[in-house]
Amino acid sequence: MQEKKIAVLGAGISGLSVAYYLKRKGFTVNVYEKSGRAGGLIDTEKKNDYLLDKGIISGIETTSLIPELVDELGLRDSFLYAGEKANLKQAYIGGRIYDLSMNPNNLLKFPLFTYKTKLRFFFEPFLPRTSRGEEVSVAEFVKKRLGKEFLDYVIEPFSAEVYAGDPKKLNIKAAYPKLFKLEQDYGSIIKGFKKAPFEQKKRDELEGSGRLFSFKQGMSQLTESLASNLNLRINYLHDILKISHKGEQFELLVNKKGDTRVELFDFVISTLPAGVLSDAIVDIDNSLAETLDKVEYAPLTQVYVAYLKQDLEISTKGYTVLIPAIENREVLNITHVSGLFEGRCPGDRHLFSVMMGGNRNGDLTAFDQKEINKKAIATLSEIFKAKDKPVFVTAKSWKKGVPQYGGEYFQLKDKIEKFEKENSGIFISGNFSGGVSIGDSILNAYKTSERVARFIQQN
Fold first, then answer.
1. What is the phi/psi pair of residue 132, to 5°?
2. 6-40+220-295+405-458 CATH
């Protein structure tokens, strides 16, 4: 039987992982990437004596596929887990730093919660379950069950960290499926948090440890190893313009530096961003293309700032300080990167990643970068009581950073499923539908490769 030709579109973590798993199953895969490098939003730069992860600083081991991948790629000696307190979050509110926790046992201890809010925690288990979760925002869900203060002080800054998003626009079932499921299964978030860990349930074999991780040479060490494993099968600087039917195959209209050509494949797996995929399939399915165009991406600006240790009066207890929207600042959160992982900067310094923008503040990329840097430095200096100027500053921005899981999410999922049935042999994956985290991307890629393999074997 003639070998089937498979194309994977996009060489971010999703595309690289799909290609890797298909290659592991014995298939030959060609990857197409618009830029000149693999990794997508995972991008590590060595600048002077600093190791800078642009955008994605670390991952969470949400699936056992991650350590498995680490071992298969020979990265075990470079794999780093952050310390036990790496998941500790703090919030900067009203000029003070407070510890944050989703643990019900700690909720009553949060000093900014009023008596009225604390009383709501006792009554939350008696509220009816949420119906039609596909239509309920994160803000609406949380306000109903735990009150506005819990939304403002806890959920909103967490949403800004994960999605750079606005909880009034994010959908609860799409953006926080586990939280929504707790309420549905137990009739209460509080009950769910208390009872779920003790339930005797069959452990998912793909479940991970939940620990924060990175690599000695930064997060790009993972994507570069995946790319290296695929050898010469990645076609860089290849822009996919159109996908169309050609008999029983699919025709890709590819542009490389102005040279346009057509290539034929039996199967196509897309991990392209929503808007790019929309342009490519508009002639096949205009309805899906229109829905893809509606997928919103939050803009992000990241400013790396380093201080001499002796110049900061306050040390970091938590590795990430979240700044709620009620503070009216452009800064979303600050991560003490050098506290998480070794080798990020010289030993006499603290290195911080300051995330700014998001849906809360709009696109800061249009503003003067020097002014943005000043705002980042001013917030850092205020929180950690800097006695002198920073010794290092650099920044990067993304107009389309994190996809938002809003009201169109479930309509989009339905249309993708319908599209794949009507266009047998095309598969759609990527972080706009399968989860925004590294772990979600790898898990979704693994499941996509399983679907593709089954389809090929059955046809």
1. 50, 55
2. 3.50.50.60
State the CATH architecture for 297-403: Alpha-Beta Complex (3.90)
Radius of gyration of the chain (CA): 23
**Domain boundary assignment for the chain:** 6-40+220-295+405-458, 103-198, 297-403
What would the CATH number be for the domain defined by 103-198? 1.10.3110.10
Residue 3 burial by CB count (10 A; 0-12/13-18/19+): exposed, middle or buried?
exposed
Rounded to 5 degrees, φ, ψ at 6 are: -120, 135
367 membership: H or E segment, kind and range: none
Tens of pLDDT, residues 53-111 = 998 999 999 999 999 999 999 999 999 999 877 778 899 999 999 988 777 777 778 99
CA distances, 151 to each of 147, 156, 255, 324, 325 (Å): 7, 6, 47, 10, 10
- Token representation of residue 150: 């819990």
Which contiguous run of DSSP H or E holds residue 315?
none
pTM recorded for the entire structure: 0.94
The answer to whether residues 453 and 27 touch, using CB atoms and an 8 Å cutoff, is: yes
Q: pLDDT tens digits, residue range 149-205? A: 999 999 999 999 999 999 999 999 999 999 999 999 999 999 998 887 776 555 567
